[in-house]
UniProtKB/TrEMBL annotation:
EC main group: hydrolase
GO CC field: lysosome
Originating organism: Parnassius mnemosyne (clouded apollo)
Reaction catalyzed: S-hexadecanoyl-L-cysteinyl-[protein] + H2O = L-cysteinyl-[protein] + hexadecanoate + H(+)
EC number(s) from the headed UniProt entry: 3.1.2.22
Biological processes annotated in GO: receptor-mediated endocytosis
UniProt protein name: Palmitoyl-protein thioesterase 1
Gene3D superfamilies: alpha/beta hydrolase
Keywords: Disulfide bond, Glycoprotein, Hydrolase, Signal
Amino acid sequence: MKKWLGIIFLIKYILAHPTPIVLWHGMGDTCCVDFSLGAFKQFLEREIPGVYVNSLRIGNSTIEDFENGYFMHPNKQVEYVCNMLANDPELQDGFNAIGFSQGAQFLRGVVQRCGHKLPPIKNVISLGGQHQGVYGLPHCGALQHATCDYVRKLLNYAAYYSWVQHSLVQATYWHDPLDEIMYKKSSQFLADINNERKINKTYIANLNRLENFVLVKFDSDSIVQPRETEWFGFYAPGQAERLLPLEESNLYKKDRLGLRKMKESGKLIFLSTPGDHLHFPQEWFVEKILKPYLL
Ligand SMILES: *[C@@H]1O[C@H](CO)[C@@H](O)[C@H](O)[C@H]1NC(C)=O
Ligand SMILES: *[C@@H]1O[C@H](CO)[C@@H](O)[C@H](O)[C@H]1NC(C)=O
């Protein structure tokens, strides 16, 4: 009996043409190696038979992909991915997308900046994305890599220098709550996609076109500071202790990005899981994300 159920399940998916999935990896990671996103791609392919998964490689090789996560300007990365997605024939009927860590805010950049030129983007899952930026990079987690240490030092001293903004990816989403004016003026990526300087209506319309925007926060995250940024929360302006949830921020109250509308219509989903950054049990992912949003 169990075997038959399995076969029926399988036929159902083959006939249903599962919606393709796009993955965007995080800092210090790459698209395809076996022990990271490569394994996650295989996991999705196992759980959703017949699914097409495009794990984005930013660059011509794995090494470039790794380096670009630190040094290729997010505005360029977003443009690069917009082109890649527009030219992928497998995605032409629409797709879901999952962003890991900084890949999640870059994915949102893609939705907002070129969503109107792409096939329908249905559900976007943000796993530990830094939607209000970061203020601090406490350590590099498992990636005790020289590049990461260099990045940490530079961010603490010079994040808003123009040359740093131009040359260091993480500076473009550095958010200093003690100097909001500087952040709004100088952040070359995040302040723009969060409509902090001006309101771009295309951004709002494109984001609102999603079926669901799912924000996952890791409750024991030791890498992202503050972890509330994963739900669009951040420090209240002028200090770095008291946190404001999205609902109490100006971004929400003045609805500069259309998030209030999305929340009220049930499209903005907040999930959390107890682990550290990007650590989650597979069963949790299957129940909370795969079944509701990816099937
Ligand atoms: C891919 O290679 C070309 C030719 O060497 C180079 O100009 C381009 O910048 C590379 N792409 C990326 C995204 O690094
Ligand atoms: C708003 O965003 C769209 C899409 O990226 C862009 O084409 C347009 O120039 C932007 N408008 C303004 C006023 O910045």
